[in-house]
Amino acid sequence: MSHSIAVIKGDGIGPEIMDATLRVLDALDCGLDYEFIDAGLGALEKHGTLIPQASLDAIEKHGIALKGPLTTPIGKGFSSINVQLRRHFDLYANVRPAISFPGTQSRYDNIDMITVRENTEGAYLADGQEYIDDGNTALSVIKVTRKGSERIVRYAFELAKSNGRKKVTAVHKANIIKTSSGLFLDVAREIAEEYPDIEFQEMIVDNACMQLVMNPHQFDVVVTTNLFGDIMSDLCAGLVGGLGLAPGANIGEKAAIFEAVHGSAPDIEGKKIANPCALLLAAAQMLDHLNMDDKATAIRKGIRDVLENRRDMVTPDMGGTGTTDTFADALVDYVGH
């Protein structure tokens, strides 16, 4: 059965890692049809806007998008493209796995955890930010709703249930931020009672960060609010080797966008040394979402095999001597057998 998806190649190294990723998807014979759409700096030059309406329409039509890294220009007048996409499509769940792979520069082995971050409210609401007192005081509103808390916590528990995971940890700061963080924690406790077979743990965010550094293996699924999840998911990426191994899924009721969470790295654009793993792992998340679990598993196993056994094909950031293309070559060879 074929499925059509929107593809945003992205800025900087985006086209290079996207081409590598699509080669692997094609080698797996996933039956995907691609509609390439514009966003980012290329769209700004071509259409005068970072996200043309035609691109939004395409994502809505297909319901699925695979996205390379995008650059938001520095300066006033430009808001984050990722935030715009998440709000436009109400992509409330940001799902960030952190999984250990061999041959990487990481301090731990055998990490396998997922951060589930509320993606649409919390501290990132632009309409709650302003300067007053002649610009000498800045105000920012943290808005947390029962609806937003319920759906993100339930998503985390359902994810744990469907993936055979044993524990969900709700991370908060309710001891100090008693309203917004307190509401999130109250809701998490309520939802947890509906899942008696899954262990529930609650942890204050500063302690959670310390525990992640000292003993990350105690965590399984972490669910938290927007700002804390943004910080913690990058911390978790650092535990397994960095953002080059960090995929992200942005899930809503009617659309989902899968992405490499690292930047566009313009300093290495065109050098063919960009690591494609994060986008490849995002593509695996996309295949899981499309109920192609076997093909998603093949990508993950293939990445593991290449990192362990084909060091000459691995990109320099992971200690290899290869290129973006040779990594894709090795992975295509693996999934083709």
UniProtKB/TrEMBL annotation:
One GO MF term attached to the UniProt entry: isocitrate dehydrogenase (NAD+) activity
UniProt xrefs under Pfam families: Iso_dh
Isopropylmalate dehydrogenase-like domain: residues covered: 4-331
Record-linked InterPro entries: IsoCit/isopropylmalate_DH_CS (IPR019818), IsoPropMal-DH-like_dom (IPR024084)
Catalytic activity, EC: 1.1.1.41
Signal peptide residues on this chain, from the entry's feature table: none
Keywords recorded for this protein, A-Z: Oxidoreductase
Top-level lineage group: Bacteria
UniProt similarity note: Belongs to the isocitrate and isopropylmalate dehydrogenases family.
Annotated NCBIfam families: PRK08997.1 (NF006529)
UniProt protein name: Isocitrate dehydrogenase
